[in-house]
UniProtKB/TrEMBL annotation:
This is Cytosine permease. It comes from Candidatus Mycolicibacterium alkanivorans. Signal peptide: none annotated. The chain crosses the membrane at residues 31-52, 58-81, 93-115, 135-154, 161-180, 200-218, 239-260, 266-290, 311-331, 343-364, 385-408, 420-439. Belongs to the purine-cytosine permease (2.A.39) family.
Amino acid sequence: MPARAGDMAVETHGIAPVPAANRYGSPRRLFTVWFAPQVNMTVVFTGTLAVVLGLGFWLGMLAMVIGTVVGCLAVGYLSTWGPRTGTAQLPNARMAFGGTVAVVAVIQWLSSIAWDGLVGLFGGEALAGLLGIPFWLAVVIVLAAQGVVGVFGYEVIHRMQAVMTVVLLITFAVFAWKFIEGHEVISLPTLSGADLVGAFVLEVTIALSLAISWASYASDYSRYLPVHTSRTAVFGYTFAGLAVAYVAVQAIGVAAAGVLTDQTAAGVRAIMGGGVLGALALIVIALGSVASNAMNDYSGSLALQTVGVRVRRPVSAAVVVVIAFALIMWLHSGDLAARFQGVLLFVSYWIPAFVAIVAIDWRYRSAGRDVVNPAEEVTPRGDAVVALVTFLVAFAAAVPFMHTNLIVGPVATALHGADLAYFVNFLVAAALYGGYRLVGRRTAQLWRAQVR
């Protein structure tokens, strides 16, 4: 385990709770660790989708802000569990899911690979353009670099993100200024009526999917904080880091949609004016990809350990990198906008139900307690089975509401492309699991009253 801020040794500690005596750091670190990973071309490209869908600038911005805020609320809340449990998010989920958490952990592990692909794609594109090398070789270099950071673990990730926050902020600020100076920013909607409403809801969902995708990682990066760290501070810094980055960077995408489109890295280089400034921009894009994906690799390794696979965390982080290569090559080989949107939405459809289940369990379990040790918590087999069944039923209930190039549900079609799957997924899970726990609690209270 790292022992202090700046301890750059390889972290071999896995998913066991971090002892109180080994905690350190300030919640202020959470701002940079959540800000830097969002300042990348994946988030810019997500912003361009608002215009691709036909919303125009102002409606696109409004939809993006709504989805971002809702997703960031979930991540900020779950981040507060880190100091109280000393454990990462998937091991924390064992309290609700018991042994069945292995199913969720496998899904999380696969999702981390998908995110490696979505983010690493643009890093590889930027590096290939900069060095004039084949795209596949550039991807290998980017993945290797992020794998190294993921292997080193918690403290190295925090330190790197603090540095990258400054570097990325300056670079993207210059990019935004150069773009605004020479291009038309405000675009108008190209749709009307029900089609416009459907596109607006879909963009809300796209922005939500981006932000809430971090919910299953949330406490991974707060688990070393001291036990009695302010929950308000943990929530505030996490929420602010995510929300500020997402709103600012997606706004660049909404404004620059007409220039960037599928040629994201090339478009950035052209806007920066080529030359040294353009080259520096491509370098920063590649570094931003490494910074973001290092967190995917790290959290993916913790998810694999939660499954029960007996593998050292650094080795697991390296495995995620290898598999991500194939996904990146597939994304790059066809209609990027369609494939990107499809993967972006699909890999996170399960997360709202996950959030609902673990939050409800936590509400009952942590009431009146400042510290909860997941390693000592008991989860009845029946509760674990109900949690998993609820998780699966909620996903199935959301399928008709999905709208991606992978799945187009009949309800989404009837609603002119509006994707309500995330909201349905959350509400169904909250109703089923919340109802189950409420009935169980009242039954237990009646039984105790009769015994007395």
